[in-house]
Structure to design on (109 residues):
């Protein structure tokens, strides 16, 4: 696994991809406002809510040397660079709850 979850609020979907330049991105999707029951269909025009997350997202990265993370989202106008916490030989990515409104990409380099 490219990362392990230390903590994350309910309703956050995450996935990791390798780009052609060998860097990685982790995508985050806030689905905490979804109210679907098992085996139900997603409405054609749903009324979507994106409630604020109740806590941070903290991931332990298992990706080798990573020095920084750049956050990209339609919820803020410019890219943001955030530092990584050290945890022995690995790094920890900490996303504050306010940074994930709807969708977020963390590019790791």
């Amino acid at each position: 696994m490219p990362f392990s979850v230390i903590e994350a609020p309910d309703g956050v979907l995450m996935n990791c991809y390798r780009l052609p330049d060998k860097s990685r991105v982790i995508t985050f999707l806030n689905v905490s406002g979804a109210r679907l029951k098992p085996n139900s269909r997603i409405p054609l025009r749903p009324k979507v809510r994106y409630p604020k997350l109740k806590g941070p997202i903290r991931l332990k990265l298992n990706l080798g040397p990573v020095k920084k993370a750049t956050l990209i989202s339609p919820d803020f106008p410019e890219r943001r660079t955030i530092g990584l916490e050290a945890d022995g030989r690995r790094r920890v990515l900490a996303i504050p709850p306010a940074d994930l409104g709807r969708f977020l990409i963390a590019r790791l380099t």
